[in-house]
Amino acid sequence: MGVAALAAAGSVFGADRLSATEKGSLLMFVNANGTIHISNDYPADVQLQAYVTAGCGASYDMGFSLTANQIAAFDSYDLAMPLGASDCSMYVWAVNNDNAQIRWNHLSGGIIGGGAYASAAALQGSNGDTVGVAGTINMDGVEYSSAFNGYTVNFAASTGELAIDLLDHDFADKNSDAPNTKIVAEIWNSDEVKFSGTSRCVTCS
User: How many CB atoms lie within 10 A of CB 66?
Assistant: First the structure.
């Protein structure tokens, strides 16, 4: 099962973007350090497929179910331990009995501690219907909510740190190349002076 973030042509509206507050069918917990919680608010059971990774490369999968209106909690340290790490990222999505991804926009979650959380809604079909081709999740604003390609942040240069999660993962191929992209930054200092031309190629590490 792979999770892919693909570019989409045309406009993507706000409701079709990743969210930290809305429910979805795909949940992402990035650089989690604390307690991960996941809930299903639908009055029926749902099967979930998850992959846990520490950086790029090493990962493992796990499957579990949530009953109607159930909340599950995971300690990120316990999840990261098999990978020899102290924190981890976890990607979770709803599946059917054939392990194909389905629409189940009744999942939500968060991290008590450190890390970043986001959900992606499935945008096709009705609740329980399969979405796209089994084994590939396209976050393109058509099948699933689209990821962002820009970010605005205030930071102190001496203490600030920016973490970027590249969502082009292939969990099925352990020998696949690590995701990479080019970051272009426009920077203004406290005097509103703009510095342009800063760019860097980055890869998942």
Answer: 22
Exposure pattern of 127-144 as b/e (b: 16+ CB <10 Å)?
A: eeebbbeeebbbbbbbbb
Domain residue limits, the chain: 2-138
The pTM assigned to this predicted structure is 0.82
- Whole-angstrom Cα Rg for the chain: 18
Q: Which tens digits make up the pLDDT trace of 137-165?
A: 999 899 999 887 776 777 666 665 666 77
Fold of 2-138: Hypothetical Protein Tm1070; Chain: A (2.60.290)
Q: Contact, 151 vs 184, CB < 8 A?
A: no
Q: Hey, what are 63's tokens?
A: 């499957």
Which of 132, 202, 135 lies closest to 170 in space, CA to CA?
A: 135
- All residues at 6 or more sequence positions from 69 whose CB lies less than 8 Å from its CB, including other chains: 39, 40, 41, 42, 43
Do strands 180-188 and 194-203 pair parallel, antiparallel, or not at all (unpaired)? antiparallel
